[in-house]
Amino acid sequence: MLQIPCPWCGTRDETEFHFGGESHVERPGIDVSDAEWADYLFNRENPKGLHYERWCHIYGCSQWFNVVRDTVTHEIHAVYKMGVAKPDITITDRD
Amino acid sequence: MKGYSIFSLVRNALSGHRLWKQVWRTPELKKSYDVVIIGAGGHGLATAYYLASKQGVRNIAVLEKGYIGGGNTGRNTQVTRSNYYWPQSAAFFDHSLKLYENLSHVLNFNVMLSQRGVLTLAHSHHELESLRRWANAIRINGIDSELLTPAQVKKLAPLINLDARFPVHGGFIQHRGGISRHDAVAWSYARAASALGVDIVQQCEVTDFDIANGTVTGVKTTKGNVAAGRVSIAVAGHTSVLAAKAGFRVPITSMGLQAMVSEPIKPCLDTMVLSPVIHMYVSQSDRGEIVLGGGVDIYTSYAQRGGIPVMEDNVAALLELFPAFSRLRLMRQWSGIVDITPDTTPIMGKTPVQNLYISGGWGTGGYKAIPAGGDTMAHTIATGEVHPLIAEFGLERFESGALIDEGAASGVSH
Fold it and tell me: Is the pTM of this model over 0.90?
């Protein structure tokens, strides 16, 4: 069970949240090529390690926010609000 | 390869089982191969076997970072079926089921295929209507399926509770579907491929690719560099990681899918039952364990362990349908990392890198596809022409928009 610190409500169980996938995906302009549009629609960063992702506190305040989580240990390294730039984080304590 | 038979069994029994030969070779990694396959799971091993047996390519290595069949091949719930909606999927998965039906004979290794039927339940009038459409589409695809009334469901699985919170309104069954033994599938392909000269090198992780002018020329491994004419990726949940090293992106997210087994009990469930709405599937293994699974964990993961909330959901769903199983204790629980695509159809064929091939995006249903995946990839790698059965499963479909939406066919939604 993940314990997720909602920026508005504090730490709650993962069952209160909805996972929204990769964050910071930017919608390209309308004049892009099919390849760029497909890349935006379907391709996702799927790292083994730090993942910048969106969560929604769906059974709480219903607010979306960003999380930096390690996809191997599931450890949450940072939580920050929508619209805030990606924090620069490196994993140092994992073997 | 020493054939297995009733006579070899008797001979080895009489000699105290001390004289069984090693099942496959343990070769040293050579400097160069015509084909290097990354991943000694079912798909990688089957590809190597069909390359050697059908396509006449013999200088092949299968590189495995762990051990044979130790990833998703050894972590699934052993279900084989071909009850798919779209004709492209139906043709491919039924080819696979037909190969499964003859696999023990062809590979001289008992994969314990038991065609006990795969029963999909409906829990409302409307769901039954959509199951009817699904079952009819399957029949039009030339594959067996039969609609069942609640009474027929009860007859097939007497322990089922038809009057649960979501009562059973009926279902449909593919009689040719069933289960087989997953380790045996990996081992049988490994043994047959090894006998044909394929080098299966375990504990050998591919760390990078050698790519010159957009063409792959070899791989870097933890046991040294290997030159290769062609390279194929068959690594399930780690497909994105290797694709990134080769310099291209794939529409895949890696999620943890868990399964679990109870303590073994006497035979009480001789069909495979799955419920898309209550969200679980269950069968009884030959050892007597109740094998169950459900949806994926809700977040991306490479951890190979499942979270407690989903495990609890899976068990609750099982007990809703089979209250009698509440007396059982869970014996083991595990998780595999599944590579899920947006349309739940695999990604097979060529990549943006010349001579680099891919068989991934199997998501939650790769086990049933092992024989056909191996057969069609072997053809594609050997000839350089994508096999007709997988022509529409290529990466380019995401750009053209020709997706094959099989979201419903994964049994339970993920």
Answer: yes
CB–CB of A34 and B400 under 8 A? yes
Which chain B residues are Cβ-neighbours of A73 within 8 angstroms? 303
Q: Tokens standing for B300? A: 């991306």
Closest CA to B95 of B206, B103, B361: B103
Q: Is B326 on the interface with A (CB under 8 A)?
A: no
Which residue on chain A is closest to B256 by alpha carbon? A71
State both tokens at B331.
């014996």
Q: In this complex, is the C-beta atom of B381 within 8 Å of any C-beta atom belonging to chain A?
A: no
Strand A50-56 with A64-70, pairing: antiparallel
Query: Is any Cβ of chain A less than 8 angstroms from the Cβ of B310?
Result: no
Q: How many Å apart are CA B349 and CA B361, to the nearest integer? A: 12
Q: Quick one: tokens of B55?
A: 């396509």
Three-state SS string over B53-109 comes to HCCCCCCEEEECCCCCCCCHHHCCCCEECCCCCCHHHHHHHHHHHHHHHCHHHHHCC
Secondary element (H or E) of residue B139: helix B125-140
pLDDT, average across residues B337-346: 96
So what's the ipTM on this one?
0.94
HSE of B302 in the Cβ direction (CA atoms, 13 Å)? Answer: 19
| Chain B residues within 8 A of A13 when measuring between CB atoms | 309
Tell me the chain B residues in contact with residue A17 when contact means C-beta distances shorter than 8 Å.
298
pLDDT in tens, B76-118: 999 999 999 999 999 999 999 999 999 999 999 999 999 999 9
Q: Which amino acid is at B302?
A: Y
The residue of chain B nearest to residue A36, with distances taken between CA atoms, is B399
Q: Is the CB of A42 less than 8 angstroms away from the CB of B298?
A: no
Got the DSSP string for A58-84?
Answer: TTTT--EEEEEEETTT--EEEEEETTS
Q: Give the whole-number percent of chain B exceeding pLDDT 70.
A: 98
- Residue in chain A nearest B301 by alpha carbon: A71
- Among A19, A35, A72, select the one facing B302 at the smallest CB separation: A72
Query: Measured between alpha carbons, how far is B176 from A11 in angstroms, rounded to an integer?
Result: 49
